[in-house]
Amino acid sequence: MVLRIRLARFGRSNSPFYNIVVAHARTARNSRPLEVLGTYDPVPKKDTYDDSGKLHKDIKLDILRAKYWIGVGAQPSDTVWRLLSMAGIIEPKRRPSSSSSPRSS
């Protein structure tokens, strides 16, 4: 059975909060996952330890468990792929650049 690493949405309307979960590919988004790897809060907030005033999105992730699940063949969704590449676990996806494609005359 195919395993996916994906986001499960929680929180109120207009205030999302996501759990990063490992689940079977054919189950519903908010069904019971096999394991919760971490959390992702996409609403930018000020960091209490940073005096620069920049806004940060909160990502908490169990890196060892994420590496384990990728090692046994779990497929991350596109959004989770981006989050895992920011953590340095997997290589970022490369988009094909439009300048390398030949133009027709």
Automatic annotation (TrEMBL):
It comes from the Eukaryota. Keywords: Ribonucleoprotein, Ribosomal protein. Belongs to the bacterial ribosomal protein bS16 family. PANTHER family: 30S RIBOSOMAL PROTEIN S16, SMALL RIBOSOMAL SUBUNIT PROTEIN BS16M. This is Ribosomal protein S16. It comes from Phialemonium thermophilum. The lineage of its organism: Eukaryota, Fungi, Dikarya, Ascomycota, Pezizomycotina.
